[in-house]
Amino acid sequence: MQKILIIEDEFAISEVLRAYLQKAGFQVEQVFNGDEAMERFYASQPDLVLLDVMLPGRDGWKLLEEIRRMDTCPVIMLTALGDVHYRLNGLNEGADDYIAKPFNAEEVVARVKAVLRRSQVENPQVKRFGQLEIDSKAHQVQLSGKIIRLTPRDLSVLLFLADHPNQTFTRDQLIEEVWGWDYEGSDRAVDLAIKRLRNALQDWPKEEGEIKTLRGMGYQLGVYKK
User: Fold this and answer.
1) 27: how many CB neighbours lie within 10 A of its CB?
2) Which of 44, 75, 97, 215 has an alpha carbon 20 to 30 Å from 181's alpha carbon atom?
3) What's the whole-model pTM score?
4) What are the distances in angstroms from CA 47 to CA 134, 149, 181?
5) What is the distance between the alpha carbons of residues 53 and 12, in angstroms, rounded to a whole number?
6) What is the arithmetic mean of pLDDT over 130-158?
7) Distance between CA 204 and CA 115 in Å, rounded?
8) For residues 44 and 5, is the Cβ–Cβ distance under 8 A?
9) What backbone phi and psi angles, to 5 degrees, belong to 43?
10) 10 pLDDT more than 70
11) Distances from the Cα of 57 to the Cαs of 7, 32, 33, 61, in angstroms?
């Protein structure tokens, strides 16, 4: 179930959006001021954000800038400022869509679905498992918005496991896929790489996933939350 974070200070508007989005099959979280928004964003790791511009605390422009600095999560701006200048500013600053108030809630749901479809086509290389984000094109790993530094080999192991979540691979299979068939070193290199990855991802919540050892079988990226 895809998750939508609504950042909107008008309770009535937020509730209408929540009801329509839940009816459409989305999981919804709500925030009503800008100062709490980023904490909730990092905690919930939404698939899309509906972001009001005029908020108490940090406004929508500042929040959009902060989200874009750390994440590729799609953002749709919601605002009473419907002038073309504001729409262009929002799109130029990294928003994926811009909806002026007053709006039809069913149209918002349709726009949410369209942006999610487009983002999945444009960013198939980005895999998100809860708070863990793995970008195979940029060769970058983030956990709760913070970049995780990995050696090239360890990153290659993680990228391969992320391409096959919840599938188990033996040491020999990992060596062939990551190190190459002509590798002549010890298969202990796999164990050491897995150990380093576990240390690097030690703050990844266990309820979201983990690098698992299946005794006598091998290793897998066990994923419990996407």
Assistant:
1) 14
2) 215
3) 0.56
4) 14, 24, 38
5) 16
6) 87
7) 28
8) yes
9) -70, -40
10) yes
11) 12, 10, 6, 12
